[in-house]
Task: inverse folding
C-alpha cells in the first residue's frame, strides 16, 4: 500500500484504533478524548478525513458500525521516517539515523 499522508491530529485517531480497535464510534470518541481534549465534532471530522483517505474503514459487525485502521502502525511509522529522510536527507535513511544518533 502506498504511503497515505496523515496529519498529526489524524494520527491521534489512528493511534486510538491501534491501541484498542476496532471500535464503535462512541468508543473511538472516548478513546481519543482520553488523550486529547477535543470535541466530538472534531474527532468525527478527523475520522471522516481518514476514511476518505482510505486509512480507516467502517465495517458493520453484530449490527453495529465499527472502525478499523486499514494501515498498521509499523507501516505508518516507516512511511513517516521515509518522508522525513526524503525531506531532510534526499531520501537517505542512513544519514537520518546518523544525524539522530549524533544529536
Result:
Amino acid at each position: 500500500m502506498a504511503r497515505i499522508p496523515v496529519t498529526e491530529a489524524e494520527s491521534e485517531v489512528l493511534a486510538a484504533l491501534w491501541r484498542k480497535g476496532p471500535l464503535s464510534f462512541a468508543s473511538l470518541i472516548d478513546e481519543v478524548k482520553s488523550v486529547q481534549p477535543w470535541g466530538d465534532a472534531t474527532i468525527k471530522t478527523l475520522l471522516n478525513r481518514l476514511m476518505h483517505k482510505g486509512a480507516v474503514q467502517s465495517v458493520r459487525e453484530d449490527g453495529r458500525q465499527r472502525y478499523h485502521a486499514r494501515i498498521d502502525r509499523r507501516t505508518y511509522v516507516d512511511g513517516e521516517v521515509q518522508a522525513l529522510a526524503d525531506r531532510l536527507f534526499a531520501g537517505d535513511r542512513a544519514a537520518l539515523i546518523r544525524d539522530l544518533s549524533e544529536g
